Amino acid sequence: MSEYQIAVVVGSLRKDSFNRKLANGIIKLAPSEFSFKQLEIGDLPLYNQDDDAQQAASVKRLKAEITAAQGLLFVTPEYNRSIPGVLKNAIDHASRPPSESVWGGKPAGVLGASIGAIGTAIAQQHLRNVLAYLDVPTLGQPEVFIQVKEGLFDSSGNIGPDSKAFLQSWMDKYVAWVKKHA
Fold it and tell me: Does residue 2 surpass a pLDDT of 90?
């Protein structure tokens, strides 16, 4: 078993999501003492405070997986200049009721990819605001706003050579961040 288990939350449900590809590619850059598990968020019901006393099995599963992790990795697209609803829904479920939030103290990294020139800069800022409120220490630098272009991924799904050094540097800083805060 790896020393550091990381819960990966991809903010897109699309099968061929750029951000799922980015998550799959970047985790290959981590050292062997880190393991990663992409969490399922597409099966969560819409958050309703009336359900806090009897949370759905999918919500209990999500909370247990986050609790078991030593760190978090958020990889998100940007929808309408913010985070996708499915990601906010997952965050809300795992933070409720407030006395049972599972986010607090878990070190996190945030990145994302988009075809737009600014990548996912605004969505990431919104996500960082939410994570700050939930007491999630989030790696601040370097920021990763990836514009999806030809060559970002190779045919095997690895990070392409033009982006590999930058993303390896990010992963190295993320690893140090998790070790410092876990």
Answer: no
